[in-house]
Amino acid sequence: MKWGRALLRGYTMAFLAALYAPIAVLIALSFNESRLVYVWTGFSTRWYEQIFANRLYTSALLTSVIVALATTLLSLVFGTMAGIAAARIISPRVDLLWTSLVLLPLIMPEIVEALSLSLFYGAVGIPNGIGATILGHVVFSVSFVALIVRARMAGVGKAYEEASMVLGATRVQTFLKVLLPIALPAVTAGAFLAFAASFDDVVKSDFTTSATTRTLPIIIFSEAARGGVSAGLNALATVTVVISLAFAMIRNAAERRISQT
Known about the structure:
Blueprint: H1 2-29, H2 46-53, H3 55-86, H4 92-107, H5 110-124, H6 130-153, H7 159-166, H8 171-199, H9 203-208, H10 216-227, H11 231-260
Helix pairs in contact: 1-11, 2-11, 3-6, 3-8, 4-6, 6-8, 7-8, 8-11, 10-11
């Protein structure tokens, strides 16, 4: 029994090391004073000072945050309604069709989806920019919210809704005071998934942004492809990691608090 626990503990540590060691190396090298990535000459924050003084980087970071927040808000509105509505589906065939359609944006190759968005925008006359990027991100982020909310509401049934209506509540009051609080843990989880998926996206953003609305992941990708990995690029990538980690921690804390209420 002790050997089994030790083996499981060792496997867990090895798994976590393989998963996070590259990120740890990235963060450590971002504090390297030297311009040469793998030649350590001392600890320094000079690269962080440079990237925050660079208007291109700060503008890209602001654009990424705006796109992610707008994507999250729209995905919550449409995804929550779709998930609650789907939980009422009785027919297995209709349920299978709904699930397939919602899963399709998540399992489709991203490059194919990005190309289809670009062709669609060109056909209907939508110019590339921050609005086109938000719309493109909502297409797949809404699926996260809809699937999670549907799973949460699948076992609820109509009993709570019918009881609320019998007691005199309107449909809007029933939704806001009965259904939404029940779905809140799923809505919260879907919100952070939608934000993370939008904030870290490269492919769809590359096909839908303009030269003046590029997001931070696109800046990182383009500079790495053009000039290779540098200490400044490590610092820029570390900022992205820290933001993603912060939202993951906020999401866990919010989910824990909701589950305790």
